[in-house]
User: What shape does this take?
Amino acid sequence: MNRVFLIGNLTRDPELTETSSGISICRFSIAVNRNYSSGDGERKTDFFNCVAWRGLGENVARYAKKGNKVAVMGSVELRNYEDSQGIKRTGVDIVCSDVEFLTPRSSQSGDDYEAPAPAEKKRAALQAFDDDSDIPF
Assistant: This one.
């Protein structure tokens, strides 16, 4: 099973792009503190590159920014590539299946925050139904 759950802070603003076929992809990275300190009392931090696709990626790009705390759920994916000098490299990405925004709205700067539009609720009109003629009792 390949599942990962991380909670951390965005290290930079998310970058939203599109593939050549028009699918949205958002790349961002998070810093996650370790649960323990090193021998000198310093707490270590790990950095993870994350990828969110389609609507999830669009939401991350719209509502998250550098410094925000997020919970990321997804899987680890390894990429093999060749750098500009022709050296073979391996990259590690967290492919997100879900991202939860943990920074409260009140602590975000209000200038660029755009609240989602409320969903329009449609209620079917109820009609009286009086058909006692078919009831056998």
